[in-house]
Amino acid sequence: MAQQITINPVTRAEGHGKITIFLDDDGFVRDAQFHVTQIRGFEKFCEGRPFYEMPSLMARICGICPVSHLIASAKACDELMAVEIPETAQYLRRIMNLAQLVQSHALSFFHLASPDFLLGLDSDPAQRNIFGVMQSHPNIARDGILLRKFGQQIIELLGGKRIHPGWIVPGGVSEPLTVEKRDQILATIPEALATIQRTLDWFKRTFDNYPEEIRTFANFPSLFMGLVNEQGELVHYDGHLRFVDATGKIVADGIRAEDYQDYIGEAVEPWSYLKFPYYKPAGYPDGIYRVGPLARLNIINFCGTPLADAEWAEFRELGRGAVLSSFHYHYARLIEILNGIERIEHILNKPDILSKNVRAYAEPNRLEGVGIAEAPRGTLLHHYRINEDGIITYANLIIATGHNNMAMNRGVLQVAKHFVNGTKMQEGMLNRVEAVIRAYDPCLSCSTHAVGQMPLQIQLVSPDGAVLDELKR
Amino acid sequence: MKQPSSRIKTLKIDGQDVGAHEDETVLEVARENGIFIPTLCELEGLSPHGGCRLCLVEVKGINKLLPACVTYVEEGMEVTTNSTRLQEYRRTILELIFSEGNHICSVCVANGHCDLQSLAQKLGMYHVSVPYRHPRRSVDASHERFALDRNRCILCTRCVRVCDEIEGAHTWDVSGRGIEAHIVTDLNQPWGESETCTSCGKCVNVCPTGALFEKGKAVAEMAKKRGFLPYLTLMREKRTR
Predict the structure, then answer these.
(1) pLDDT greater than 60 at residue A446
(2) What distance in Å separates the CA atoms of residue A193 and residue B150, rounded to the nearest whole number?
(3) What are the chain A neighbours of B219 within 8 Å (beta carbons)?
(4) pLDDT tens digits, one per residue of A38-51
(5) A160 contact B CB<8A
(6) What residue ranges define each of the domains in chain B, with the CATH number in brackets?
(7) B141–A166 C-beta distance less than 8 A
(8) Least CB-CB distance to A57: which of B107, B111, B147?
(9) Under the phi-then-psi rule, with left for phi > 0, alpha for psi from -120 to 50, and beta for the rest, what region is A465?
(10) Which of A292, A347, A366, B202 has its CA 20 to 30 A from that of A279?
(11) Under a CB-based contact definition with an 8 Å cutoff, are residues A136 and A121 in contact?
C-alpha cells in the first residue's frame, strides 16, 4: 500500500518546516516534499508605509540575519533616493554585513550542524544537539560561541545593539566609527582567525567519515548564483549577479540588480508557502539553481584574501568544475568565515574608515529601486516601488532560502531515496533527511528559537489518510 | 495669564497640605509641589484639553474621577493622585490607546522619544489585554518636509492647539466623530496642498508620538524639540502686558 512519512517539524533549522516522504506500494520512496508551513506577509503589509521605514521594518523578518535585510533594504532605498552613499558608509555597512556572516555561519555550523558530525548522524537524538557537543567536545563548542560573539560584538559596537540595530539607514549609516571602537574590533581579530583555522583543520579530517553522505546529500548538477565584482572576486555587499553551471562555466554574468526579473522567475506550488524561483532562460522546473556559501565559492574567480584563497584552492579540488554536493556547504561556510574575518581587518585599516561623512540625504528621486546583497544563506533581493510622496506601493523580496527551494526539495528526495525505506523506520535515516536541509541552513521564518530539542513527529499515512504508524522523538 | 490679585486656596493633595491661587488647576499645584500626575494631551504652553484622561484624580466627596488638568482648586479639597484604582484606570486607558491605533514601537521613527511609550513604561503597562483593532489608516506624506502617520495618532490635539494658539495658522483640526475621528489639514485636503500651513514644524515637535515626523528620519531618530514652547508663551505674555 502506498504510504506517506511526515517529518514535522524539521529540527535544528531556523523556523518551521515539514517534510513529507511519499512511498510507493513496495515501500520505496516515490517522492518527497519540503514544505514551509508559515506565511509572514511582509511584502503586503509594508504597502502604504514611508520608504524610509523599510530597512528597520524589513529587518524584523529575521532575528538571525537582520543585518542582511537592513543592507538589501537600505540599498534599495539608496536606489529610490538615487544617491551614491559616502565611501566610508559603504565600508562600515560592509563590516557589519561580514560580522553578521561570521556569526550566522558560526551558528549554523556549530550550534545546528556540528552535532551531526561530532556525535554522529545515528547518535541518540536526546544528546544530538549543542548541549551534547558542550559535554563531549567543550573546546569546539567554545570555539563556536567565540566566533558568534566575535560577529555579534562587532554588530553591537557599530549599531548599538546585537539584533535589529537601526544604524543602517537609507543613504548610509547613522553614526561614524570611533577610534576606540575600531581598535576594540581589531583586537579581537587574531583570536577569531586562530579559531576558524583550528575549526577548518578538524572539520576537513571528518570528510572521510561521511563518503555516503557527501555522495548523496543533494549532490546533483545545478546552476549556482551569487554576487561577484568585476574581477570575479568574492563579494557580499556590492557587485553583479553571476550564474555558473555544474561544470563551472559562466552562463550569465554582469547582471545588474534592476534586471533581475529578466533572469529569475518565481513559480508557486500549492503545498508550500515558499515560492520556487528559477533561472528564467531554462524555465521551470529545469532552471534549478543554488545560492549561499557553496554557490558563492563555485562562481568566483578568487576570494581576495590570502588565507581564504589558499583554502579555496583546496575546496575547488573537491569537484571537477563546480563542487556539487550540498554537504560541502558546511566547508564553504567555514571558508567564508575565514574570508570575512580577514576582510573586516582589511577594511578597518583603511585610512578614511573614521570619516564623519557617512550619510547622504535626499528625497525620493526614483519610483523603483532594487537592492541586492549576499546574506549568509545566499543572495537576498529587495525590490520596492513608491509613489511620488515616497510611500511604498509594491514590494517583492527573494530571500536565500527561496532561491534554494527547488534544490532543497531535490536534495530531500535524493537522500530519502538512498536512506529511507518504508519497511522499517529508523530515526537516523530521518535525521539524514533533515541534515540535508540543515546543510542549506534555511531560514524558514527567520526567527531565533532553534536551539535544543524540538519534538519530531513522523507519521506513516495511508492514501485514505489513516495514520498507520507514529514515531515520536 | 495669572492675575497677581487672585485669592489663595488651601487643599490637600495625597495628604500633603498645599496652597494655591484660585485660578490654578490641580495639575499645576501638584507639579509645583513635586507630585507626579501622568499626562499625555497636556503640554505646558498650550491650553488644556482634558482629552486623554490620564490625569484623572480622586477628590473626596465626589464619586466620579476628575481630570486634574481642567479641575480648578477649591478650598478644603482632598485630592488623591495615586491609588490602585487610578493605576488600573490609567493602564487601561493606555491599553485602549495602544489597541486602537497601530503603535509598533520597534519600527517607529519616535521610538525612544515617545511620550506614549515612556508613559506606558512608567505606569507599568506591559501588555494589552484587549484585542487590537488593526485599523487601516492612511499616511499623508504630501508635505515637502513633514509627514503624518494617522496610525500613530492618539488625537491628543496638541498639533491643533499649537497651530492655532501659538503659530496662529489653524491648519490642523479634528474631523469625524468617535472612532472615526482623525486629524485633517485645512478642509481635509492633503497636507502638501494646505494653503494655511506655514511649514513651521511646531506641530511635529509637540506631537507626543511618531504621528507627525520629519521626512528622512529613520527609526528612532525623531527626537522632538519642545524647548521653544515655554519661551514663545513667555515672550507673548510679556508683550501683551
Answers:
(1) no
(2) 50
(3) 53, 55-56, 166
(4) 677 888 889 999 99
(5) no
(6) 8-82 (3.10.20.740), 96-240 (3.30.70.20)
(7) no
(8) B107
(9) left
(10) A366
(11) no
